[in-house]
Amino acid sequence: MGKILYTITNPVLTLYLNDIFFAFFKPDLYLNAMKTASRPLIDFIEDHHLVIPEDNICFKATVQFNINGRRGELISDVQIITITEKDIDVIYLMSPEIKVNDLPDFYPGDRVAFSYFNNQCLIIKGISPQDGEYIISLFPLDHYS
Fold it and tell me: Which 3-state string (H, E, C) describes the chain?
């Protein structure tokens, strides 16, 4: 057996170093611990460095939308969570402009399709009962916890 060179007794530092290790050296294990279910969503989170120790992810994004022929763009806070009991990823858009533009603000992974264009944006495709087909593109601006 090898020798233990250092012992870390600070629990916060231990958790922080453990998170860094898993996020850097074992991102698949780290993301599995977050329970993210969708491969395009996992790639998006990894490429934009949105991995954080909590179970949800928050960031600001430029949101481009095309819903029933109406196109537009706005800035919104975005939250990604996973409902672990059902293994479903959910994306929330949290901006007053969402309702003003008559957009859905809730995108559950079992009712929409996620796709990802490498290092660019996450695409959400779905169907709204009121407006028909829509496409939402999320371009991250920054990341915060």
Answer: CCCCCCCCCCHHHHHHHHHHHHHHHCHHHHHHHHCCCCHHHHHHHHHCCCCCCCCCEEEEEEEEEEECCEEEEEEEEEEEEEECCCCEEEEEEECHHHHHCCCCCEEECCCCEEEEECCCEEEEEEEECCCEEEEEEEEEEEEEC
We find that the CATH architecture of domain 11-144 is Roll (2.30)
Tens-place pLDDT, residues 72-122 = 999 999 999 888 777 889 999 999 998 888 888 999 999 999 999 888 899
